[in-house]
Amino acid sequence: MAEFHCTTYKGETPRSVARIYIPRDLASAAQLTSPSWPSSRDAARTETQETLTARLPTPEEATALRVSLTRTVLTITRIVLNSTGRVLEAALLALPSDAADAVFSTHWETDR
């Protein structure tokens, strides 16, 4: 597995931290430096499972987000699978709860 740590900012303020895990054979240097990464793997995706949770931050998250250990964070755990059930990506994202919005979209498919 290859592990990546990412922090996003709005100006000087950290907005989210993420740990992303990708099977080593899918994490080639060419893919990771591509402007389309991680969406360059979208063609193989068939299922994404996401879980949203509110909890207190870990000490590492509190430090990275510059928040108190008593300030709630929202976490999103994401698992991306291909058609055979192989995990293509696993990710844990954490955001300060008072600076995050959750948007859920449902797209219905019909059998024809």
Walk me through the structure.
The protein is mainly beta and 112 residues long. It has 2 helices and 5 strands. The protein has helices spanning 29-33, 59-65, and strands at 2-10, 13-22, 47-55, 73-81, 87-96. Strands 1-2-5-4-3 form a 5-stranded antiparallel sheet. A hairpin with a 5-residue loop joins strand 4 and strand 5. The protein is globular and about 45 Å long. The N and C termini lie far apart (39 Å).
Core attributes:
five-stranded antiparallel beta sheet, 2 helices, 112 residues, mainly beta, globular
Blueprint of the fold:
Blueprint: E1 2-10, E2 13-22, H1 29-33, E3 47-55, H2 59-65, E4 73-81, E5 87-96
Antiparallel strand pairs: 1-2, 2-5, 3-4, 4-5
How does the overall form come out from the CA principal axes?
globular
- Low-confidence parts lasting 5 or more residues at pLDDT below 50? none
- What is the overall number of helices? 2
Radius of gyration: 16 Å
Average pLDDT figure: 83
Quick structural overview:
The protein has 112 residues and is mostly beta strands.
